[in-house]
Amino acid sequence: MRMKLRYLIGVIALAVAPLHGQPTNGAVYWSATQPDCSSLNESPVTITNTSGTTIGYSCYVGGTFVWLAAGGVWGTSIRVAAPASGAVGVDYSFYDTNGTDLSLDTTGSFTGSGNDVNFALYANQPAEIELRGATTNAPSYNSTATGSVYAIFYCPDATTCGNVLPQLIYSALPTYPWSLSVPIAWDSATWTQWSAEGIDDGGTHRVSLVIYNDDTTATSFAVHVYNSAGTLVGSGTTPSIPPLQDLGNGNLGEGGTYGALLADVISTPLPSGIFKVLVDGGSINSAVEVLQVDGASATTLQVAYDSAPTTAAAAAVQRSSIRRLRVESRPRRVFNELPK
Question: 0.90 cut: is pTM over it?
Answer without folding.
Answer: no
